[in-house]
UniProtKB/TrEMBL annotation:
Residues annotated as domain Aminoacyl-transfer RNA synthetases class-II family profile: 138-393
InterPro entries: aa-tRNA-synt_IIb, aa-tRNA-synth_II, aa-tRNA-synth_II/BPL/LPL, Anticodon-bd, Anticodon-bd_dom_sf, Gly-tRNA_synthase/POLG2, Gly_tRNA_ligase_bac, GlyRS-like_core
NCBIfam families: glyS_dimeric, PRK04173.1
Species annotation: Sphingobacterium faecale
Keywords: Aminoacyl-tRNA synthetase, ATP-binding, Cytoplasm, Ligase, Nucleotide-binding, Protein biosynthesis
Family statement drawn from the similarity comment of this UniProt entry: Belongs to the class-II aminoacyl-tRNA synthetase family.
Function summary: Catalyzes the attachment of glycine to tRNA(Gly).
Subunit structure: Homodimer.
Name of the protein described by the UniProt record: Glycine--tRNA ligase
EC number: 6.1.1.14
Record PANTHER family: DNA POLYMERASE SUBUNIT GAMMA-2, MITOCHONDRIAL, GLYCYL-TRNA SYNTHETASE/DNA POLYMERASE SUBUNIT GAMMA-2
EC class (word): ligase
Residues annotated as signal peptide: none
An example molecular function term from Gene Ontology annotations: glycine-tRNA ligase activity
């Protein structure tokens, strides 16, 4: 990472903390590694992103329904899914720093450095070597690659490495009143299995016909060894997943449809299309016959935000085998029983949050010939902005605060609002710019005469005079979910 991109990422992290979006978990106790809390504005933004996803999946699609499955699940589920035996990452330790790293990520970081240094041929060859080693599950080869390319520990700066070995990422705990009689269970490492084990429940009670989908938003837990890149890689995180059940033989057609649909969903938020790319998986998971990541160009390089996978019928077959319950669907159109195939779309909500935050944070130079000026602004799409509008009385006297409060009390029934009467009006605008508030409403002396106020638009900084009785409909139109959802139709 260059100094410029490193500074940009540091600005994102510091802005998120300074304005109440994201805090280090347990910070007064020196924090807990790779665990974060969402502050007052972060919680609002996160909830709005969940609402956008839920509306686009469940509300707009008649053949998709949502569920909320439990975090604790029967331990045999994780045996059936392959997580007990195969949910591992290749880890390597540095003997001097005592730090542990994912071997493949150390190599990927080296590939990024080669590309940034203009050594594209070296980067391509290293990528091929990495892919070959991963495909062959060749752990000694991974260590050899690290040594051949002089990859050092970021902390100690040395190449004193251990052998590469596999490390299971699931958190285990005990369920039961007595330690001796307790059963070992796991905190779920993904939300997908809660959908698969409820496939028949939803299909029968909802009278669902293939093709149909089940959507879910929920927490998942992975014992990530590497705590880095802020909320990009955490031990406790949130997923937004769709499992779409289709007739065998049609899965790749649906895979392409969902691949296109999901990128369109991201771009509707106002992101630069050049910041996104598809990255096809070279090494497919054992259950998949196609897989792609939607990646975003963060300050530290392109990283996955969402995955689309054609999972075949692996999951339902496994649960049929381990539970001894038939997981079949009778298709009246072809008069046939079969186990459906599945196309999955999986978004990391925390990564999406970071994507939106990084994409929206802008430093603008507003200098003129007469004076130097600048501002920091979060240009969130108005529909997802944590605060929709702020109300300012121009002064703290002459009845202006009372009038502003009167307007605030009416509008807060429909919108998340802020009231601010401290400091000069320009400073108040800058504070709202910094948290992404799209509209500021100023109550001045003219308001008392003709019941009009000034609306200031965040992005253009233009102002217009409007009647108070029109505010609800004006703000409502500007921040409406329709402005986002219409783009997806």
């Amino acid at each position: 990472m260059s100094k410029q991109t490193d500074d940009l990422f540091k600005n994102i992290v510091s802005h998120a903390k300074e304005y109440g979006f994201v805090f280090q978990s347990s910070e007064i106790y020196d924090g807990l590694s790779a665990v974060y809390d969402y502050g007052q504005l972060g919680a609002e933004l996160k909830n709005n992103l969940k609402t956008y996803w839920w509306k686009s999946m469940v509300q707009l699609n008649e053949n998709i329904v949502g569920i909320d499955s439990a975090i604790f699940m029967h331990p045999t589920i994780w045996k059936a899914s392959g997580h007990v035996d195969g949910f591992n990452d290749p880890m390597i330790d540095n003997k001097d720093s005592k730090k542990r790293y994912r071997a493949d990520q150390l190599i990927e970081d080296k590939i990024d450095r080669y590309e940034k240094d203009g050594k594209s041929d070296k980067a391509a060859q290293l990528q091929k070597d990495l892919d070959d080693a991963l495909n062959a599950d060749d752990l000694p080869r991974l260590k050899t690659i690290i040594e051949e390319h002089n990859i050092v520990c970021p902390v100690s700066g040395t190449k004193n490495w251990t052998e590469v070995r596999q490390f299971n990422l699931m958190f285990a705990t005990q369920m039961g009143a007595m330690a001796d009689g307790a059963e070992q269970v796991y905190l779920r490492p993904e939300t997908a299995q809660g959908i698969f084990v409820n496939f028949l429940n939803v299909q029968k009670t909802g009278r669902m016909k293939i093709p149909f989908g089940i959507a879910q938003i929920g927490k998942a837990f992975r014992n990530e060894v590497i705590a880095r890149q802020f909320i990009m890689r955490m031990r406790e995180f949130e997923q937004m997943e769709l499992q779409f059940f289709v007739r065998p033989g049609t899965e790749l057609e649906w895979y392409e449809k969902w691949k296109e649909t999901r990128l369109k969903w991201h771009l509707a938020l106002g992101s630069d299309p050049a910041k996104y790319r598809y990255h096809d998986h070279v090494k497919l998971a054992h259950y998949a016959n196609a897989a792609v990541d939607i990646e975003y160009d963060f300050p530290f390089g392109f990283k996955e935000v969402e995955g689309i996978h054609s999972r075949t019928d692996f999951d339902l077959k496994q649960h049929q085998e381990f539970s001894k319950k038939k997981m079949q669907y009778f298709d009246p159109e072809i008069n046939q029983n079969y186990i459906p195939y599945v196309v999955e779309t999986s978004v990391g909500l925390d990564r999406l949050f970071l994507t939106v935050f990084a994409n929206s944070l802008v430093h603008e130079d507003l200098s003129t010939e007469d004076k130097q000026d600048s501002r920091v602004v979060l240009k969130f799409h108005p529909a997802i902005a944590p605060v929709k509008a702020a109300i300012f009385p121009l002064t703290k006297k002459d009845g202006l605060p009372e009038k502003a409060r009167e307007i605030m009390n009416k509008l807060k029934l429909d919108f998340n609002m802020q009231y601010d009467e401290k400091d000069a009006i320009g400073k108040r605008y800058r504070r709202q710019d910094a948290i992404g508030t799209p509209y500021c409403i100023t109550v001045d002396h003219q308001t008392l005469e003709d019941n009009t106020v000034t609306i200031r638009h965040r992005d253009s900084m233009e102002q217009e005079r409007v009647a108070i009785d029109q505010l609800r409909s004006i703000i409502g139109d500007l921040v409406s979910w329709n402005n986002l959802l219409d783009q997806l139709q």
